[in-house]
Design a protein that fits this description.
Two copies of one chain form a homodimer.
Chain A: E1 3-8, H1 16-31, E2 35-40, H2 46-56, H3 64-70, H4 72-87, E3 92-95, E4 102-104, E5 113-116, H5 119-126, E6 130-134, E7 137-139, E8 145-147, H6 152-164, E9 168-173, E10 194-196, H7 197-205, H8 213-222, E11 226-230, E12 238-241, E13 254-270, H9 275-285, E14 290-295, E15 303-310, H10 315-324, H11 326-329, E16 334-346, H12 356-366, E17 373-377, E18 380-386, H13 390-400
Helix pairs in contact in A: 1-4, 2-3, 6-8, 7-8, 12-13
């Protein structure tokens, strides 16, 4: 009689037929003897419409009125699912953030959950009543509604799983799991049965947008087993678990790519202490995230070339910031290139296997792909290459690391 | 520095442009030095859509989930108006039913307000902050959201006016006031400057659907001066006040008609005690409202003819109920006629003027209109006539009582 939390995203509750399909999943879990808590998003498109209205009405996402308006979408879907389940003879009720309550730090538009009151939920679950909780929302000390920001419903589901000590948190979405690579690029990509939190985090932050980073971090912190699965097909998905829960560890679990990269090179930057801070400080002040950074060894000890990447959308702003500081920074040229892609090999197995990076470089060399920038972490190697080589690079690496489906 | 409550209906907040027009009205009142509380409905059509979804999902209006879903429309409009006002530099905030709270008896789908907590509202008003309250909703002791039923936002506005001891409650709608008759029928109908609560109640219950009966009753009970006015034109509307506040009382203030009537006649009903109860009891059990009732004096002391009216939509059900009881009731024939209209002359002045009814009968006779049923109250005379005569009857009476616009 385990507690299971099921979370359904916007496409899974897009209309009443879809909500009925969600009810099928809930009903199956109840029939299997599980105690079920459900977290729902708003109908697909609804939150965007509400955000557009608020923005047209002159308010930003940091306002209490924004949150009051955009939190209504989940109120609709939770109520409707409760109606459908009850019409089928199941016990069910919906909960809004302020009703439980789901307490937060009160920051409008991107609040963090501080505590979920679970007394009533546990009593309901014990009584066999399906507990349906509105995702994405909570309450501030002031009594105002807050929302949790992007991916907020996933956060609600994971936090609720932790609070209820759930056996598993099933994240139903429009894909049927986590793949070794993007199936649109790699036809032979295969679904992973299991993946570690760390790998999932790298995947998420590198553009495989199945789960938001914040919710994976939260699941890892509270040791909540996640399952990513499709609400449209009836099959197991991908389990996201602790490294210890992986029976057998493959060396590499996935190849990802991100096209949202732009490269900036500053040539002949004076090679003196504090120059990096002088360059990246103003970028940080302008809220521009810098990702990969490479500084070449200075040949003559006087000047060096510095290369870094930013999101494509930040390129123009980054250049403006740097041009404004040109005299102070003293570089010779600023070279920009928006036509780059970041290719990454991810796997916790790297920690115990030598030669993972070497194989990557070898594959790139064999295919004649020039590596522009390299960066590595404990479980990931990323290279920046010309965007035209994206598919070639990803497919070649996918084969080289034996990830291809048979 | 009077407190004014302004209520705007669904067509007045149908989109952002309309909400901006509402903000203009609020801003004008604030500029005039008033302390303004605003009550809003949902965008026109939104509540109907939500009700349709809930009903399709298998729940009726008596359920907690119905209320949770259908109360979201007002949450959207109140938040948006607050955004618009704040973007113009005014102080404003929105309030949901559970936030104030607006306490109710907890009956889902048609709750009655028992108390409105006004401490925070009054503090905000004193501080010059516009207080925007979601109409149509409140909270049950259980902590669940409830809605107030049809015309619920008017109820919220009137109850709030009473609780705040407001100088006036302005009901903005899509008509510019209360008319002496339906302008679609009587081209010479004119807008009334003032009308009493009692007259308004008769008008409302007789089909002049400007204000719901419940909200007028509530205003009368708490002596809240109402004003019905248009949100689309900038002109005074109609004030609804106590009889004592009418400087000059016209004999008749309006002519109304209701086509939603059907006539049933039972012939040769045995004339014995208890027969009326035997007929109307089963109709009442079937939740069929009977309106006008006429029982002719029995000629032979043995049997009488009984005529009554029901709403057109209830006619078939009423006949079924009566046919099932035919043996018990012992009537000879059941004659039905759905092609009737009820024409009413309304005016508190009737109390002190003789001859009002006589003039009505005279006009009908002059125009050759046969009166089928008559019923009277202290401030109203109604007659049932063939539906074809509707326009002729209403226009003739409107002229006869000197209501025509010059």
């Amino acid at each position: 009689m385990a507690i299971i939390v099921q979370k359904f995203g916007g496409t899974s509750v897009a209309d009443l037929d879809r909500i009925r399909a969600v009810a099928d999943k809930v009903q199956a879990a109840v029939a299997a003897g599980d105690k079920v808590a459900v977290v729902l998003s708003a109908m697909a498109g609804v939150t965007n419409q509400l955000v557009a209205w608020v923005s047209e009405a002159g308010a930003g996402p940091d306002s209490s009125e924004y949150d009051s308006v955009v939190s209504t979408g989940e109120q609709v879907t939770t109520g409707l699912l409760a109606c459908v389940l009850k019409s089928r003879g199941l016990k069910a009720r919906s909960w809004l953030g302020w009703q439980l309550p789901i307490r937060t730090d009160g920051v409008h538009g991107r609040a963090r959950i501080t505590e979920i009151e679970t007394g009533a939920l546990k009593a309901g679950l014990k009584d066999g009543e399906v507990q349906i909780v509105a995702g994405f929302q909570g309450i501030a000390k002031s009594g105002r509604i807050v929302t949790l920001g992007r991916g907020g419903s996933d956060i609600t589901a994971v936090a609720l799983s932790a609070a209820l000590d759930a056996a598993r948190c099933d994240i139903y979405t429009d894909v049927d799991g986590v793949y070794t690579s993007d199936p649109r690029v790699v036809a032979k990509a295969r679904k992973l049965d299991k993946i570690t939190y760390e790998e999932m985090l790298e995947m998420a932050s590198l553009g495989a947008k199945v789960l938001q980073t914040r919710s994976v971090e939260l699941a890892m912190k509270h040791d909540v087993p996640l399952q990513v699965l499709s609400s449209f097909v009836d099959a197991p998905g991908t389990l996201v678990v602790n490294e210890e829960d992986m029976l057998e560890q493959e060396m590499v679990s996935g190849i990802t790519y991100s096209r949202d990269e732009a490269k900036v090179t500053l040539t002949r930057v004076p090679d003196r202490p504090g120059v990096a801070a002088a360059i990246f400080g103003p970028l940080s002040d302008a809220e521009i995230n810098v990702d990969m950074i490479v500084q070449n060894v200075s040949e003559d000890g006087k000047a060096t070339d510095l290369t870094f990447t930013v999101a494509k959308g930040d390129l123009a702003a980054a250049i403006k910031v740097l041009e404004n500081k040109r005299d102070e920074l003293g570089f010779a040229h600023l070279v920009q290139d928006p036509n780059v892609v970041k290719i990454s090999v991810i796997g916790v197995g790297m920690r115990s296997h030598a030669g993972v990076a070497q194989k990557m470089f070898q594959v790139m060399a064999e295919k004649g792909i020039n590596i522009q920038v390299i960066s590595t972490s404990e479980i990931k190697i990323s290279v920046l290459v010309a965007e035209d080589y994206t598919e070639l690079a990803v497919r070649s690496l996918h084969s080289a690391y034996n990830l291809d489906q048979e």
